[in-house]
Amino acid sequence: MNKTIKTFLLFTLYFLLQCLCFFQSGSYTDIIPYATAELGQSQSHGSWTNGFFFLGQSLGLLIATQISLQYGRKKAVFFFSFLLAASSLFCALSLNFYLFLVGRTIQGMCCGILILGSQSLVFEQSPDPWRLIPLMLGAVASVLPFTIGPMIGGYGKELIGREAMSWKYWFVLSAASLLILSFLLHLCLEDTEERIEKRPWDWRGLILLSIMLGSLQMIFNMGDDYEWFISPIIDFLFFLVVVSFVCFIYVETATKEPLVRIDLFLRKNFLIGSFSLAVGFLLFYGLWTTLLVRLQNQSSFPPHLAAILFVSMAVFSTPIVIWFPRFLGKISLRLSSFVVFFLLGVVYCWMGYFDFYQKRWFWMQPSFSFLLQGISLGLFFLSLTNLIISGLSPKNQLRAVELSSSLRILAQGWASPLIGTLIYHRIVYHKMRLDEWLDGGNLFLTDFF
């Protein structure tokens, strides 16, 4: 096979693998209401399924480099692609909601490892003039879940049908696609000797971090069904968070090869950039997924029509991700970061005037505001990531990107339950009390129903 064609095929397979990893959250978000209901849970539990996925993904990003160096990138990529396919089938076959959460957590961990592992593997095997292409394709794949990802999940569900557990098609098709992609990728990759480095694992740090983040995720998840300040379960989880956090800081500062480089937070650019990236993305993703799910739950939009609203974001976000890196060296990182947050502020002020009763041409409003949101999304990752790594050595830049990406993914997992709780906390309970208080013939109650 011609080397150019083989390289092009390798890039194509790599891009599809990256898209599959990112779409495990983006395309699934559109069918959360159906999966949650058919697993026998209330809609307030829907955010749990993505929250635990992002928890697993954040941990996967932190251990991806260690696993690749310990066992080799090629072995790691193929093992975790098969494990991701197996966990997808496990989710499809799960009849219990909590077993489904276990499958989603494993899916997230596999996706985190595959995103970094496959990028490094393809980067190493690319010809020198083309080595930037895998990085560019990975950046494009990272924004697609928020633009065309929900449409893929929504149209798939619409074509198959919205009953009889039809949401499971996504997991079955993902598993089949992963197996095919892994086999084709194995054929395209060259057999080269990989560098293996045996490093001591920071098991204590990993266990303490998992306990801390798992407990914190549950606190956010339970906010919509429990009272944060009077629930003994939440009090116990908060106690676990505090104790594990203190122990984690002690262990990481006393370990020669820590799981998390605590000293990076002492650098101003990293601290401010990572905090801005995490909080900014928490607000973006939380409002994005809340609007997507509530369009279906409250405004009776079918999943494919709710997803179409977000497609216009791709008009600018994808070209910006491709071309903007060329100009990063010519503009101020602080200025570009300021522009990103200013645009997002304008977008959300605009979105605050959406009229769900269609008195102000509802279909005209989101189309234009989402174009602006696509520009913000395209600039978001690149500007803040370059601010985070500025002033660091190449080795520390890699650790900084992994750590900041893990924090962003964590914030993504907290976003939906946190914002959903703040906006809709105990809404079902209040509706029931309203129903009990008003008499059956009340005109307001008739409109309410």
From TrEMBL:
<feature type="transmembrane region" description="Helical">
    <location>
        <begin position="305"/>
        <end position="324"/>
    </location>
</feature>
<feature type="transmembrane region" description="Helical">
    <location>
        <begin position="228"/>
        <end position="251"/>
    </location>
</feature>
<keyword id="KW-1133">Transmembrane helix</keyword>
<keyword id="KW-0813">Transport</keyword>
<keyword id="KW-0472">Membrane</keyword>
<feature type="transmembrane region" description="Helical">
    <location>
        <begin position="368"/>
        <end position="389"/>
    </location>
</feature>
<feature type="transmembrane region" description="Helical">
    <location>
        <begin position="45"/>
        <end position="64"/>
    </location>
</feature>
<dbReference type="InterPro" id="IPR005829">
    <property type="entry name" value="Sugar_transporter_CS"/>
</dbReference>
<feature type="transmembrane region" description="Helical">
    <location>
        <begin position="201"/>
        <end position="222"/>
    </location>
</feature>
<feature type="transmembrane region" description="Helical">
    <location>
        <begin position="106"/>
        <end position="123"/>
    </location>
</feature>
<dbReference type="InterPro" id="IPR011701">
    <property type="entry name" value="MFS"/>
</dbReference>
<dbReference type="InterPro" id="IPR036259">
    <property type="entry name" value="MFS_trans_sf"/>
</dbReference>
<feature type="domain" description="Major facilitator superfamily (MFS) profile">
    <location>
        <begin position="10"/>
        <end position="449"/>
    </location>
</feature>
<dbReference type="Pfam" id="PF07690">
    <property type="entry name" value="MFS_1"/>
</dbReference>
<feature type="transmembrane region" description="Helical">
    <location>
        <begin position="271"/>
        <end position="293"/>
    </location>
</feature>
<feature type="transmembrane region" description="Helical">
    <location>
        <begin position="135"/>
        <end position="155"/>
    </location>
</feature>
<keyword id="KW-0812">Transmembrane</keyword>
<feature type="transmembrane region" description="Helical">
    <location>
        <begin position="76"/>
        <end position="100"/>
    </location>
</feature>
<feature type="transmembrane region" description="Helical">
    <location>
        <begin position="167"/>
        <end position="189"/>
    </location>
</feature>
<feature type="transmembrane region" description="Helical">
    <location>
        <begin position="331"/>
        <end position="353"/>
    </location>
</feature>
<dbReference type="InterPro" id="IPR020846">
    <property type="entry name" value="MFS_dom"/>
</dbReference>
<protein>
    <submittedName>
        <fullName>Multidrug ABC transporter permease</fullName>
    </submittedName>
</protein>
